[in-house]
Structures are given as C-alpha cells and as structure tokens.
Amino acid sequence: MARMKFLCDAERCIECNACVTACKNENEVPWGINRRRVVTINDGKPGERSISVACMHCSDAPCMAVCPVDVFYQTDEGVVLHSKDLCIGCGYCFYACPFGAPQFPQVGNFGSRGKMDKCTFCAGGPETDKSDVEFKKYGRNRLAEGKLPLCAEMCSTKALLAGDGDVVSDIYRERVVSRGFGSGAWGWGRAYPGQGA
Amino acid sequence: MPGRDNANPGRFWSQRVLMRVSICALGALLLLSRPLWRGAEFEARAEESDAAVTASAAKPDAPKDASAPGGQGDLSLRGHGGPVHSIKLNSAKTRALTGSFDYSMMLWDLSARPPKQIRRFDKHDGWVKAVALHRDGRRALSAGGGDVWLWDLATGEALYRFKGHKAEISALALSPDGKWAASASSDRTVRLWNLETRRAGPVLKGHKGPVNAVAFSADGKTVFTAGYDGTIRSWASAGGAFKRILYRHGFGINAMARLPGKKDLLVFGALDGRALVIDARTGERVHRFKALQGPFLAIALQEKPGLLALSGFEKKGGDIVGFIHVFRLGDWAPIEEYENPRGPIWAMDFGAIGATIYYGGKDDRVTVWQVSPRKEFETIAGPMPRRFEVNGTADQGELQFVRKCSLCHTLTSDGGNRAGPTLYRLFGRRAGTLPGYPYSDTLKNADIIWSAETIELLFGLGPSHYLPGTKMPLQKISDPKKREALIAYLKTASDAKSEDSSRKSDETGKDSSKEQ
Fold it and tell me: Where does chain B hold its CATH 2.130.10.10 domain(s)?
C-alpha cells in the first residue's frame, strides 16, 4: 500500500495560488476557510521563498494525539482524516499542528469554533465513499475515484507534489541531483521524521 | 544540573527501570542543591497581598501523597465535569480559580485538606478557556465562549458580562492598576474592557489569525498580543492604536506572558516547539530555550524566588507525553523537568511559592506536581483512556453516547458537574426543567417533551437548528440508523432501573445519588 505524502518544492513555487483556488473550488470549501495557503518567506527580499502549506498528513500526527474526543484516524495510505460528527470544536488540534492545518468556520453557537475543517488529501471522510453526505462534509473523494489531490494536479510548475511518498521522493531526488542543490522540501523532516527526501 | 538527564528522549520512556533509578538519584542531587535556587525568600509568605482572600487561610503545607484520591495528602482539585483548561492561583497560594470544558469556573480553598471547592460559577454559555484573578482579591474574570464575565468571588454574583467578540476567547489579562481587562479571541481581535465604567474599550485589529495570548506592559501603557499568525504585536492601551510588530516567529504562538519586573521581557512558546524570551522594548531576542518536538501550550511564572515553567507535549515512542520544564528567571538555568504520561498539559500555575505546580490536562481535575523537593514519578490514579475516547463496543447506541454525548452528559442522577444536564430519566421530561441546571433561555422557553421523536429531530436537524440559541454544541447525527441506535440505548440507559449498569459506561468520578 502506498504511503501518501505532500511535498512542496520551495525552489519552484511561484506563489500563483492556483493550488489554493483549486482546493476551494474542487471541495466547495465554505467562505472563511482555506484548507491550503501559500506562505512567502522574506517577501521582496533576497532569498524569497514561497511554500504551499496544508495538512501534511504526518506520520505521528500531533492533532490525532491531542484530540480529547479522538475524532482523527489515519487511513491505510497514511492520510489523516477526521469525523465532523464527533468534533466538538475545542481547537486543541489547532494548538498542536505545526503546519496550521486545522481551520474553524467561526459559526459555532456562543462563540465556539464550530466543526474543524482541514485538507483531506482529497480523500473524503468516514462517510460512504463518493456519497453526497461525504462531499458536503469533507469535499471530493478523488482518491476513491483513482485520482490525486487537485492542488498538486493543478500546480503549473510542479512545485507541489502529491502521491505515493516513494515516487514523490524519487522525483524530488532527481531534481536535487539535476540542479545541484536541495533544501526545498519544506516540512518533510517534521511531518515524516526519519524518512528524509 | 538536576533533572537535565531526563531531557534525553527515548531513555525516559522506553526504559522505565532506568528512569526510576535516575530520578531517585536526581531527586537526591536536587535535595543537595536546593540552596542553588531556594533562597530565604523561598519560604512561604502567607502574609503576601491578597488580604481579602488570605484573611482566614492557613499556609499550605508541602504535598504528601498526590496519588491518593480524596485523602488528606491529595492536593488534586476534583469537581470539574470536563478537562481543565485554565488555572490561576492567588499570590498567597491559598485560593485557585479553574476554568473547564464543563462551562464553569470554580474557586478552591487550597489550605483545606483535601482542597475544598468554595464556589462554582456556571452561567457561561461555552468553555471557560481563561480565568484571571483581580488584584483586589475580591473579583475575578472568566472567558466563557465569546464573553468576558466579571464575578464577585464572595457572593458568586455575576457583576457584568462583556459582550463583543464574535468567537471564543483564548486568553485574558488585567492591567497592573486593575482598571482594564484585555481578552484575546479567535475572531482575530483583542478587546479592552474598562472594569470601572464597565464599558467596552478599544478593539485591537490587525492579527491575521486567531489571537492566543495577551499581556500588559509593566506600566500598563502598552498591550502585547501574540497569535496564530506567528507575530507579537504592541498596541497603545489608551486608544488601542497599533504600534508595531515586535517579533515575527513564523509559526503560531500558543502562549505568551510578561516576566515579572519593569523590563517588559516577554516569554512565549510556539507550535514549532520553540520558546523564546524577547525584550519588548527592542524586539531583540534575549534567550532561546532548547527546541522540542512538540508544541508549547502554557506558561507559569513565580516572581519569588523567580521561576518560569513551560508546558506542552511531545510524542515519545508512540505515546503522547505532556511535559513541564522549570527554569530560573534571569539566567534561564533549567531547574526541573516533569513528564506526564496522561497527555498534554494545557494549563498550569505555581503553588506554594514555587514548590508545587498545579496543572490541567485531559482529566477532569487539576493535578499537583511537587517541584521541590522533586517528587518521584508515580502513576496517577484515574481511568484512561477517558470515557469519551472509547472506540470498541458491541452496542452502536452506546458507542454513539460515549463518543458524542458523554463529554457533557451523565446518565445517572448525579449530573457530575458536566456542561450539560444529566440524561437520567430523560424520556418524558419537559425540556429546560431539570432543577439546578443553568439552561439557556431557549431551553427554558421551549415547549418540548423529550421523547424518541424529539430526540430524533434534535440530532436529525442539529441542536442549533432545532433549538436556536441552545448552549449545546453543533452535534448532528446524519445516519438515521445511528440516531435510532442512540435513542434505543438512551431509552434503557437513562431509565432509573438501569442506573447501575449505565454507570459502567459513564464514569462520573462520583457516587453521589442526589435526587433531582
């Protein structure tokens, strides 16, 4: 079974935000929530780098560890998903995730956060695969359709890669060899400790 | 330095025997090295300020046995009906305020053995994620959901409810003169509130994400805020004008506090496992603590003898281990470390002039760790996993209850101080009528009798649609079969005759059987 991973090559990202738009459109993510965002470091200065960030579907996901009501689960492919039925909107995952993945719609009653929403690696949720209920709650289940996340599919420079971790790291390794330097695989060390690109 | 060997990950957890031996040795070392950080001022000073709350209180003794529930040596604060998220002690360490997921704040007498609950403040509409004790010792603030509540501690009266935030409040701060309160919210703003005129003050807008921490400068003229956008910002207290971004950390900042003294040094802990001290006047870094693999979650300070504690969690060998690291203020020397096998530590405060730390995690209670002399690691009594973490059960209805309802409701005659009313004898009860429970106006005025049909509607439509204005969180069960199973389970389990059996799947931590 493949182990699904994201990799953003900071040497290639041009901050076009197509991944952000693709995600919002494909999953019909509600207003106020961005499952994916592009972060630019040293904006306008020498050494500027942009990174597309969403849930990294960590090997030892801190969100899973910290949730008081145990809403998270990891699929056989390593994708970290959660049940919105169980989520109480406490925000504990929000304090734990180093990638800023958990999002809250701020529509809960009495100032609660509402149900947590995050990137699903386009793999839906606990509902029946490709059902209407699953789509409404979690967005498109592209993995069940035999496809990969649309954010990576749409990336014009192929900075954002998604898929089998072995394939992704092979592609990245070839790039590093070809261009003679690396260091662009932001977040891999933290998300997948001991499994460097 | 005592305790530092414990910082080596892996060895502590995977080799329990080695750990115990090394901790014993370290404990002995600490005893020998006590003069290094325990000066004359370390001795308890019960006469310190807060006269109003210390008048009748005795100096707390060192804990004897924190693991014996209900015993004389048990210093744990037991009584909340949900995990504890905020803890504040008065400076004499005789009183504690705690805020919990159970929608309440509690006031405790720490000089009693075991500590005694003085009062429960249960009017909040949401989780109490922050509490603050006013310098006059008579008033307190709590953040319940999106509102700030001002309380009279002696009478339990809600003096005022400050409304304005559009989302939950994560942190509270009081100005040094006690006239202003500041609340940081996940609506990306910080609001100032005048406690004398009881009017809303300036709204500090600018953070690009939820604001997680707030503090006043030593002179009260500046407000410092920190949040998910990874920035620490400064604002003028008068008028609320934005001054500047003091520090850009990049990763979200979970906790921040101003250190004692007039220098306006800020300590903060972030999502990326880094904690730093910065000078708020210059924005320059003063000290960087050793980076960890998990996030920092809470900060506690003890002015005398000058201690700083940072808490959070790390993953070690497949387990989630909460930690508390204690440092000496000034030279930042590590003093002690503590690991909590029961998970992250979300809130803490120093007790007994730095000798103990009261902390809250996943449990419904506040636990006490004896910092000095260091208490050996011991198993803490209590059911794990918690009642709401169970996955496997043959009964689908019971599973629905345990995972979705039991965080806030019991099935027994004792409501267990949980956020919601007990479901004991639910069927046939008119909504909003259980004596003693602080219902929302919606429930008080609802013309509903609880039955299979009305419960079906509640979870089919969702509480916020079926009963707009209810305090109940957004819980919807979209699968009709699961709703049916839950209702069938509740019919049996909420019945008086089955109280004994339902108790098994509904740990309340109490055996009270008061009738309601």
Answer: 164-291
CB of B329 less than 8 A from some CB of A: no
Which of A86, A96, A111 minimises the CB distance to B145?
A111
If one compares B43 and B352, the residue with the highest pLDDT of the two is B352
Q: Which of residues 72-101 of B touch A (CB under 8 A)?
A: 83, 101
Q: Where in chain B is the domain with CATH 1.10.760.10?
A: 387-504
The CA-based dihedral angle spanning residues B255, B258, B260, B261, taken in that order and rounded to the nearest 10 degrees? 160
Assess B160–A contact: CB distance below 8 Å, yes or no: no
Question: Does A109 contact B at CB distance below 8 Å?
Answer: yes
Residue-averaged pLDDT of chain B: 82
Q: Is B284 a residue whose pLDDT tops 50? A: yes
B146/A contact by beta carbon, under 8 A? yes
Contacts of A163-167 with C-beta under 8 Å, sequence gap 24+, read: A163/A2, A163/A4, A163/A5, A164/A2, A164/A3, A164/A4, A164/A5, A165/A2, A165/A3, A165/A4, A165/A5, A165/A78, A165/A192, A165/A195, A166/A2, A166/A3, A167/A2
Would you tell me which CATH number, out of the four given (3.30.2350.10, 2.60.40.1180, 3.30.70.20, 3.50.50.60), belongs to the domain A4-191? Answer: 3.30.70.20
Q: Tell me which of A75 and A98 has the higher pLDDT.
A: A75
Grade residue B379 by pLDDT with cuts at 50, 70 and 90. low
pLDDT band at residue B23, thresholds of 50, 70 and 90?
very low
Class of domain B387-504: mainly alpha
B164-291, what's its fold? Methylamine Dehydrogenase; Chain H (2.130.10)
The structural domains of chain A, with segments of one domain joined by +, span 4-191
